[in-house]
Amino acid sequence: MTSPAEFVLRPNDRIVFYGDSITEQHLYTNYVESYLATRYPELKLSFFNAGWGGDTVPGGAGREQE
């Protein structure tokens, strides 16, 4: 079993929130954005919310295996 890769933020990174109506409503994204912006102000991160109500994001690591 391998260990997960280290999560690294770099200066001027853009964080994109991609998802459905919950993402669009900023229900959790505000917490993440506030946390990162206040803990790492020197990184000058930018954030983009690409949430769209009714959208679905099939696939990814959480999908059911056939």
State mean pLDDT (0 to 100 scale).
Answer: 82
Beta-strand percentage range:
5-15%
The number of helical segments is 2
Largest sheet: 2 strands, parallel
Tell me what you see in this structure.
This protein has 66 residues and is α+β, with helices and mostly antiparallel strands. The chain has 2 helices and 2 strands. A two-stranded parallel sheet has the order 1-2. The longest helix has 11 residues. The chain is globular. The model has no long low-confidence stretch (mean pLDDT 82).
How would you concisely characterize the structure shown here?
The chain is α+β, with helices and mostly antiparallel strands and 66 residues long. Helices cover 23% and strands 12% of the residues.
Features:
two-stranded parallel ribbon, 66 residues
What are the SSEs and their pairings?
Layout: E1 14-17, H1 21-24, H2 29-39, E2 46-49
